[in-house]
Amino acid sequence: MYGWIWRHLPGPLVVRLFTAIALLIMIVAVLLFVFFPWLEPKLPFNDVSV
Amino acid sequence: MGSRQRQRTSALVVIVRTFGELMITFGIVVLLFVVYTLYVTDIVAAKQQGDVNDQLEQSWAGPATQQSVTPNKPPKHPVKPQQGAGFSRIYLPSFGTDFKFVIVEGVGQDELAVGPGHYPDTALPGQPGNVGIAGHRIGKGAPFNDLDKLNSCDAIVLETETDFFVYRVMPMPDEVANWDTVKQRDPRCARVPSLRQQNQPQGGPYNRTVGRRIVTPDRGDAVAPVPYRPDNPLPKAQQASLVTLTTCHPEYGNSERMIIHGALVNQVPKQQAGSYRALLGLIGEQV
């Protein structure tokens, strides 16, 4: 999967490297700021009130 | 090895490899979620806590909304705080002099993401009845992370616009029976009541109120004016002034709740105390 993505990134090595890092940061950002905040209240770890 | 067989093998390899990569990715995402829950939410909560703290300081610095009160008389008509607004501060000196949080009104997810939340319809600080406060134990600033380390007679200080209200954790279950002897080990315990009434069957209406209890999540009556008595057996004038802290239990689970009960022992006007640090000296806490 990662090999396939790497082969399909355009440009020379340096450009590919930056594209890959940018993609990674984007995915982490979406997880941290969109997905996890949505998911967290649905999980039973942190109910504190009676 | 024929070329057709090599092709089949490589197809299988691709499938297995992709599956493996997905599993590793999933594992990393789960780890990232742990980091998010334990640390990233702390950063967000600290920012929001700072914001409500600023708002609270502004509103306290502005024109007084409450008449200044005479010692040991709670304000007659305290202003009911607005949902989500900070209206008080909680200090737990046992966890260090820098332990302080602004309490916001409400115990929904949005409010608790900011700081400890006050159960609406429970008493306000200093009033007779029960001040109910919920707080996170994990992440989001985790204000109530260490509630299991509170001992009987440890102070729970609530600050309002005009006063510091000093509550102290009530006797633990194993101390209730001979509280009058146990309490003498520590001068801070002098005014901590067990609220048991010898002349009443089973010790009276407060017979289930102890320093710390673990209850099931459906015990909404833990924050009732008389804890665990939804029938509310006492008129307001006869109710003890209590504070009740609730958080999740076990630490990373939600199957139970940890409940801390404290009783009001001191009211110190802020004009008299000056600052929180000075108050700690006045009430015999180590600074």
Q: Give the CA-CA distance, first to last residue of chain B.
A: 80 Å
Whole-number count of domains of chain A: 1
- Helical content of chain B stands at 25-40%
Mean pLDDT of chain A: 90
Topology as H/E string of chain A? Answer: HH
Give the uncertain stretches of chain B in residue-range form: none
Strands of chain A, count: 0
Structural class of chain A: mainly alpha
Return Rg of chain A in Å: 17 Å
Q: Indicate the proportion of strand residues of chain B.
A: 15-25%
In CATH, the homologous superfamily of chain B goes by the name Sortase
Domains counted in the coordinates of chain B: how many? 1
Number of continuous helical runs of chain A: 2
Principal-axes geometry of chain B comes out as: elongated
What is the CATH topology descriptor of chain B? Sortase, Chain: A
Strand count of chain B: 9
The helix/strand class of chain B is alpha+beta
Roughly how many Å is the radius of gyration of chain B?
24 Å
